[in-house]
């Protein structure tokens, strides 16, 4: 099979690896419009189960990713002048640039052609291939060329956010909540190397404008954020883009869905097909799982149409609980004043429960007490597990098209 992957992100590169491992005779090319080593963002997160899954499909790249990752197991929240710590699941961080380097090297070693600085002109049509994979991100040009067919919709979240780096190396997943005269502003920080961490800053539009961040240049904006988060940052500086390709931008997160994921021999992968809010740290994991599902479906049959249909069906089903968690997580932060005045340890506990469909409908302090009790009483724990999904289905029923 001749395969063209348009976009050199984790999804496209990992798919090319898996396809070559299945059948070395596949002719696979990955087209990336940017130069090698040039990527937006800083570090990405994943959890231990992903490495186990990657190891089953390609042990060599899994070992390389694990060896180049940093690990944490605690969460720390700074709220005003208080600090609270919570033991949590083991998490990992890796630099996005390093992840792409590892996957590109592995793909090339298997015979994949990785062509950097090779943009694909969507207006002229996709490359000639038996299968064309659009893995060119949330703004996919190949998808937009057939937007009516795919039924693409993007819904912008309310809050503003900016993705930054810092020289502060966090040894735990760190949250910082700062109260200003214009409302609350907060950051999420996690290490991804021995020199740097990611630091995502978020706030409401009113706070963003009240602080003047909407009219500041990058240098002035970073200086203000460094002053606001001086405690969590320990005096370290914030950094905008990791390459000289423009300044870091404040954005509204866009949750993207599509009515269908394939058209003829064109299929969507990763962020081109779906996005989930960054606050659950699942974007890279979902992209790699997409690649696994598509490669598996293609490996089980030579008939393209049923393989693409199976891939879409399986991934839509797997995404439903993740998308629900992401939706409630985003809403938790959009409604931060509802929780922020709880005792810091209680607030941090509810931060860990932000994916729950029950939480928005129960007074926060009461929910905290119920959750503590559920941890000790099995009948109450079972009721909580039973009621949550049913409430989510009632409040967010699946449409006939089962959008994802």
Can you give keywords for this protein?
404 residues; alpha/beta; 9-stranded mixed β-sheet; 6-stranded mixed β-sheet; 14 helices; 15 strands; 24% strand; disordered C terminus
3D structure, described in words:
The protein is an alpha/beta fold and 404 residues long. Helices cover 40% and strands 24% of the residues. The protein contains 14 helices and 15 strands. Strands 3, 4, 5, 8, 9, 10, 11, 12 and 13 form a 9-stranded mixed beta sheet that branches. A hairpin with a 2-residue loop joins strand 14 and strand 15. Helix 2 runs antiparallel to helix 3 and helix 13 (364-374) packs across helix 14 (378-395). The radius of gyration is 22 Å and the shape is globular. It starts with a strand and ends in a 9-residue tail after the last helix. The model is unreliable at 397-402 (pLDDT under 50).
How many helical elements?
Answer: 14
End-to-end separation in angstroms reads 28 Å
Q: What characteristic shape results from the CA principal axes?
A: globular
Name the structural class: alpha/beta
What order do the helices and strands follow? EHEEHHEEHEEHHEEEEHHHEEEEHHHHH
Percent helix range: 40-55%
Strand content: 15-25%
Radius of gyration based on Cα positions: 22 Å
Low-confidence segments: 397-402
Main sheet attributes: strand count, strand direction, barrel closure: 9 strands, mixed
